[in-house]
Write a structure and sequence with these properties.
It is built from twelve helices and 13 strands. It starts with 6 loop residues before the first strand and ends in a 19-residue tail after the last helix. A hairpin with a 5-residue loop joins strand 2 and strand 3 (29-36). The protein has helices spanning 43-60, 99-107, 116-127, 187-190, 192-204, 211-217, 225-233, 237-261, 271-276, 278-291, 310-313, 316-324; strands at 7-13, 17-23, 29-36, 68-75, 78-80, 85-89, 94-97, 111-115, 135-141, 145-151, 154-156, 265-269, 302-304. By secondary structure, the protein is of the alpha/beta class. It has two domains: 7-119 and 308-324, ATPase, nucleotide binding domain (Nucleotidyltransferase, domain 5, 2-Layer Sandwich), CATH 3.30.420.40; 133-304, 2-Layer Sandwich (Nucleotidyltransferase, domain 5), CATH 3.30.420.40. A five-stranded mixed sheet has the order 3-2-1-4-8, sandwiched between helices. Strands 11-10-9-12-13 form a five-stranded mixed sheet, with helices on both faces. The protein has a three-stranded antiparallel sheet with strand order 5-6-7, with helices on one face.
Length: 343
């Protein structure tokens, strides 16, 4: 155990679950806890859930809250990391929520917040599958699809801080309606939400599938990554077909990104990649290589992410600010809390 005020907590706010871990100055994970994401409640209720999760993981690590230096959160949506405000998170129903201030007040601990995908790509660049790359693209598939870009070794944010919205790149003109209002976005074709829509549509059309039964058996209202994995293990034909289609379109996205940006590598992450590993990534890679401008260009490897969820959120306070402009508060300067993947 490290000295007082030298232990950090990383939190991943997912669309279906919240995950938290405690990490010490020796970069060892001391405890991990998980709780469901109750998106039906108001922001203050979910923030109270986050506070309770922090209390749980601190107890699980055998620590006291007074030993925490900070809490770092990877949150979905548009986030102002300087002020800890989540401006827009459609999957949570949040608009202009001061997450950092509200959670910090409950915990009496400094709280840092950043977009979850930016956290993910910074983590993969610093410690994961993209370690050492100066030009990197990360694509993370979950409830939605997000992206992040490392350029010249820095997190690239664009002119207005909105770069790498890869989930809303249109890959099928006149395709399904996306939550953003456009048609044919990759998020509407290959996210877990899109796959659940397609599975349910196939079942309504009379195709046989075990997915709804698996969801009912595990009291799941949504098709989580674990349900997808179980259905594939059962060789469910609907799930196989839906997965194959999603992997194809994701491969097209990767090819488009590589043809535009010419990165050193691409990293595929998110809950599905974490669960399924190469089973998920290999077909994406194959389609991407077939559509690279330089065909079968193995010089642009497509990797599975090595860090997941809270394991990347723990780097948010110091790491993302170093990538932005080194404006982190004095109490956080130099305090890097990140560890290699334990996958």
């Amino acid at each position: 155990m490290g000295p007082a005020k030298d232990v950090m907590i990383g939190i991943d706010m997912g669309g279906t679950s919240l995950r938290a871990l405690v990490v010490n100055p020796q970069n060892e994970i001391l405890a991990v806890e998980k709780a469901p994401t109750n998106v039906a409640q108001k922001p203050d209720g979910l923030i109270r859930d986050l506070a309770a999760l922090v209390e749980d993981v601190v107890r699980a690590a055998g620590l006291r809250k007074s030993q925490l230096r900070a809490v770092s959160i990877g949150a979905p949506g548009a986030v102002d990391p300087e002020h800890g405000v989540v401006y827009h998170a459609p999957n949570l129903g949040w608009d202009a929520v001061p997450l950092g201030a509200k959670l910090g007040k409950l915990l009496r601990v400094p709280v840092f917040a950043e977009n979850d995908v930016n956290v993910g790509v910074v983590g993969e660049h610093a410690l994961g599958a993209g370690r050492g790359a100066q030009e990197l693209v990360g694509i993370f598939v979950g409830t939605g699809i997000g992206g992040g870009i490392i350029s010249k070794g820095q997190l690239y944010l664009g002119a207005r801080g909105a770069a790498a919205e890869v989930g809303h790149m249109i890959v099928k003109v006149d395709g399904p309606l996306c939550g953003c209002g456009n048609h044919g976005c990759i998020e509407a074709l290959a996210s877990r939400t899109a796959m659940e829509r397609d599975v349910r549509a196939a079942i309504r059309a009379g195709q046989r599938s075990s997915v709804l039964k698996l969801m009912a058996e595990r009291d799941k209202e949504r098709m989580t990554s674990s349900i997808i994995q179980r259905a594939l293990k059962k060789n469910d034909p609907v799930m196989r077909n839906v997965m194959k289609r999603a992997q194809y379109y994701l491969g097209i996205l990767v090819a488009n990104v590589v043809n535009m940006l010419d990165p050193e590598c691409v990293v595929i992450g998110g809950g599905i990649a974490e669960r399924l590993g190469e089973y998920y990534v290999a077909p994406v890679r194959k389609t991407a290589y077939e559509n690279f401008l330089r065909r079968h260009d193995a010089e642009v490897p497509v990797h599975r992410a090595q860090l997941y969820g809270a394991r990347t959120a723990r780097v948010v306070s110091p790491a993302h600010r170093r990538h932005r402009n080194d404006r982190e508060p004095d109490h956080a300067r130099g305090h890097v809390r990140a560890v290699a993947s334990d996958q």
